[in-house]
Structure formats: C-alpha cells, structure tokens
Amino acid sequence: MAIKKASAEWRGDLKGGNGELSTESGVLNKTAYNFVSRFETGTETNPEELVGAALAACFSMALANNLAKEGYKVNSVNTDALVHFEKKEQGFTITKVELNNRGSVDGIDDSAYQKYAEQTKTGCPVSRALTGPMILLRAELVK
C-alpha cells in the first residue's frame, strides 16, 4: 500500500494570515498559500487549485492507461479541471469540478473515446475520493 504525504502550516487569522505547504516528493516545498489566492485573486496556490491539479493528473493518467490496455496508441491526454468554489449556507464548498479533456488517440472513434472517458471519470483514484455528482466531464477526441 502506498502512502503519499503532504503537509501544510497556517500562521495567523484567516484574512491576514499565510501558510506554506509541502509534499513528500519535494515538488512543493514551503509553497505559499493565503486568503487572497483562495478567495480573491493572488499569485500563490490554494487548496481548490491543488484538488483540480490532482484530479486532472489522475484522470489523464488513468484514461491513457485504460486506452492503452485496450490496444489503442495514446499520443496525448490533456485535462483541465475547473473547480467551482462557492459560499453556501454551510460555508464555502467545492460544488463541482468540470473536467475538460482532449485526447489524441490512434484507431479510436468518438463513441468509444467517450465511453472510456466516462468510465475513467468514476474509476480514477482521485475521482473516487471525490465521489458524487460534482465531477462533470467534457471529453474531446483530437485527431
């Protein structure tokens, strides 16, 4: 069983404070995050952006793997994630994630590509962690 580690530290109150997050791999190492980048417009990262990146990466890898296992030649799979973060009665909430996907795959038609994309949407590990109808998918086959 693989266990992946990430850590975060926050200093101060919500609006005036700031934080740093790191990953075990060192790719993120004391990477800054703060209120402005999360709730307004800033240059640091934020948890919702990281959720989107994790889902887009997982989905792209899993879809490429699923297609390759079926014998298709995968040239590229590119996925953007748009994470909707809204204030609700219970507080700020990720209400949905839109996945916009483009794949360049030899020997497949659009119907089959859509089928594999939909299967992957519910099958990749990060998707399963974010279960529910909040993940929306748009898949596009690029030739």
Q: How many DSSP H or I helices?
A: 4
- The gross shape turns out to be elongated
Percent of residues in helical segments?
25-40%
Mean pLDDT: 91
Radius of gyration: 17 Å
The first-to-last residue Cα distance is: 38 Å
Biggest pleated-sheet summary: 3 strands, antiparallel
Strand content: 35-45%
Structural class: alpha+beta
The helix/strand order is: EEEHHEEHHE
Report the strand count.
6
Strand order of the largest sheet: 1-2-3
Low-confidence segments, given as residue ranges, are none
Notable traits:
4 helices; about 140 residues; alpha+beta; three-stranded antiparallel sheet
Task: Describe it.
The protein is an alpha+beta fold and 143 residues long. It has 4 helices and 6 strands; from the N terminus they run E-E-E-H-H-E-E-H-H-E. Helix 2 packs across helix 3.
Q: What's the short version?
A:
The chain is an alpha+beta fold and 143 residues long.
